[in-house]
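Q: What residues go here?
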């Protein structure tokens, strides 16, 4: 968290643009350098661009969002990506505007963006629902084992929900993002399936993901009404191969195999502005 994040976070609670549930706005943006324009500039102009990138993309700067992460993007889709979270969406957009209005703007080409908000999924069981699940799995209501499991879940739930709404970014170096929808086709319309069935499928999906604890961290943000796709999935991996493994394995879950549609995948490697400048040869 940057030095000003606590003040921003506190201010967010009174911000009329902050999500009413205590969550944050989240934007993913990707940029490419216009090599022809960049290569035509003098060394002093290229140095000015490097210094501008360093200043604008500094997560400790006064103008920075509560969370900001840079990544070098693999492949031709972009040169780098910026992920930002903040209670105020205009504070997020202001970083983009600083980039485009400053010395770097003429050589940057925005490629793709995804606008969303953090949320607590409707499929996260309440303590009462978790208790019913324990009973269905054979625990007697009120038994010592039942009470211990229920208390442990309730104790974890507050922290898990806080991480969903105001997430800490994990220390992993590999990152992947993709947007997704749930199908609305005849015979495979997610939104006509009873909630009990949807919860069952999402529970299976969650258990598949839990097998990667310590290897992969996930953040799902919702974009319904905000972007073309309904959800955005951000995965951080302790190793790039874990990203491949978890996506492949979870494709077999019924919630994905029958009902999911996926957009473009963008994969990258976490960096700071100095590494980005060097890697993308901004100074040549």
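A:
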């Amino acid at each position: 968290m940057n030095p000003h994040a606590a003040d921003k976070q506190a201010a967010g609670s009174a911000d009329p643009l902050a999500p009413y549930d205590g969550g944050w706005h989240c934007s993913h943006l990707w940029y490419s350098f216009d090599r022809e324009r960049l290569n035509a500039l003098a060394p002093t102009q290229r140095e000015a661009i490097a210094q501008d990138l360093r200043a604008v993309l500094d997560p400790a700067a006064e103008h920075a969002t509560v969370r900001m992460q840079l990544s070098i993007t693999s492949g031709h889709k972009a040169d780098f990506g910026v992920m930002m979270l903040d209670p105020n969406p205009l504070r997020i957009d202001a970083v983009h505007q600083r980039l485009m209005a400053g010395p770097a703007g003429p050589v940057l080409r925005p490629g793709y963006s995804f606008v969303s908000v953090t949320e607590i999924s409707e499929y996260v069981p309440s303590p009462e629902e978790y208790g019913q699940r324990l009973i269905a799995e054979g625990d007697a209501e009120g038994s010592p084992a039942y009470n211990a499991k229920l208390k442990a879940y309730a104790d974890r739930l507050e922290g898990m929900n806080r991480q969903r709404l105001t997430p800490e970014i994990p220390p992993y170096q590999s990152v992947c993002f993709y947007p997704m929808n749930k199908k609305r086709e005849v015979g495979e319309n997610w939104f006509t399936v009873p909630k009990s069935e949807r919860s069952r499928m999402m529970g299976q999906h969650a258990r598949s993901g839990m097998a990667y604890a310590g290897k992969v961290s996930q953040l799902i943000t919702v974009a319904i009404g905000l972007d073309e796709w309904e959800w955005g999935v951000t995965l951080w991996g302790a190793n790039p191969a874990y990203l491949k493994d978890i996506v492949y394995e979870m494709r077999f879950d019924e919630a994905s195999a029958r009902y999911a549609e996926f957009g473009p995948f963008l994969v990258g490697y976490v960096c700071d502005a100095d590494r980005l400048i060097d890697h993308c040869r901004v100074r040549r």
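A: Context that may help when evaluating the design: The chain has ten helices and eleven strands. The chain has a mean pLDDT of 93.
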